[in-house]
Structure formats: structure tokens, C-alpha cells
Amino acid sequence: MKLLYSVTSPYARKVRIVAAEKKLELEVVTSDPWVSNPDLIAANPLGKVPALITDDGGSLFDSRVIVEYLDGLSPVHRLIPVNSRERIAVKRWEALADGLLDAALTARLESMRPDQNDSSAKQIVRQREKIGAALAEMTRGLGDNAYCVGNALTLADIATGCALGYLNLRFPDIDWASVHPNLSRLYKKLAARTSFIDTDPAPK
User: Fold this and answer.
1) Is 84-193 in CATH node 3.90.1300.10?
2) Residue of 17, 79, 9, 85 lying closest to 50 (CA atoms)
3) Please, are residues 91 and 71 in contact by the beta-carbon 8 Å criterion?
4) What are the residue ranges spanned by the domains of the chain?
5) pLDDT tens across 125-165, in order?
6) Residue 204 predicted with pLDDT over 60
7) What's the pTM value of the predicted model, to 2 decimals?
8) What is the C-alpha to C-alpha distance for residues 118 and 122, in angstroms, rounded to an integer?
9) Model confidence over 154-176: pLDDT tens digits?
10) How many CB atoms lie within 10 A of CB 168?
């Protein structure tokens, strides 16, 4: 299988961590979604990363679709529970983490606009408020638990770890670790795993 990805994409990082945890080999190919890229368009008509080219030559896109596909390829360490109640809980965490990332990416893009105006400033404030709300919900949901869902690592923890890692990379002024010590505890535990260490994004 071949993964088209960007080194700093938190969504692609989520896919790579899932593959590592499942002990699945992926050929990784850097693909810049900001320039015309025929190979990426062929794999994902939306021109976004990550995109996965499967063994049979087909393609999958959107990290949520890709990680579910990868988790089903092997019975080793199921990251998305089969049990309906736990499965929904894990997918809810993933949606929350991805939503935080959507807000963070929007805020970053607005901050990079050469023609920033009052509208841009308001958009950044709005998106940062969403980040704060997502962090508060994560802290409430985690509580004193060792993992987001159940008693072992799941996709919920991976998605949350990727979201927090992206904040560290792009928003160092958001001191989420001090404000949310339980999330900091979870992140430190995740960051010690080989799968997370090997997929740390390099800042640009």
C-alpha cells in the first residue's frame, strides 16, 4: 500500500500511527496538496492528503475512512472496538479531535493571509474559541482515566494525541498542557510510544 502524505499533516500522522500500531507496512510518498499534483488528484479528486493507494490499485481518502480500513485489515490490536457502544465512543473522540484540527488549520491559514483584515482577525478568534471548547470537552471526557475509551490504546487516543501534537507544532502560545493536566499526562504517555516518536512532524 502507498500513502500520499505531507510530513506536517496531523491527519496523515494519524494514519501512519494506526499503520504502525497495526504492524502494517506503508510506502510513504510526500505529496504537496498546495501545488498541482496529478498523482494526488488521481488518488483523491479533492487533492487532499492523506490518500491511500490500496494493494489492488484502488484509492481511499479522508483519514477517518483510511484508518477504519487499516484497522480492519488485521486482527492485531483492534483500535476501533467491535462493540457498538465503545465503537461510537471512539468515533466521537476522533470527530472531536479532527474538529479541533479543522479549527486550528483554519486559524493558521487565516493568520498567513497577506491581506489580513478585521474579518480575518474575527475568524481567527472564532476558531481559537473552538479549539478551547474542544480541549475543555476532551479534559471532561478523559477525567482521571488512563485512556480516552476503555483500558487500552484506541483510535480515540491516537486522534487526540495527533491534535495535541499539532497544537504544540503550530500554536505554542496555547498552553494547553498547564490548563489541562490530564491531557498532558495522556500526551506524555502517547509520546513515549515508538509509533508516535517515529511520526513526529517536523516544523517548517
Assistant:
1) no
2) 9
3) no
4) 2-73, 84-193
5) 999 999 999 999 999 999 999 999 999 999 999 999 999 99
6) no
7) 0.95
8) 6
9) 999 999 999 999 999 999 999 99
10) 16
- Containing H/E element for 7? none
Question: In angstroms, rounded to a whole number, what is the distance separating the alpha carbons of residues 164 and 97?
Answer: 8
Residues sharing a CB contact under 8 Å with residue 64, sequence separation 6 or more, in sequence order: 94, 98
Distance CA 54, CA 146 (A): 34
Helix (H) or strand (E) holding 165: helix 155-170
Please, are residues 51 and 61 in contact by the beta-carbon 8 Å criterion?
yes
> Is CATH 3.40.30.10 the right assignment for the domain spanning 2-73?
yes
As a dihedral over the C-alpha atoms of residue 42, residue 44, residue 47, residue 51, rounded to 10 degrees, the angle is -110
With a cut of 90, say whether residue 203 has pLDDT above it.
no
**What is the maximum span of the chain, computed from C-alpha positions, in angstroms?**
51
76 falls in which pLDDT band (50, 70, 90)?
Answer: confident
Lookup: cell for 97 = 479531535
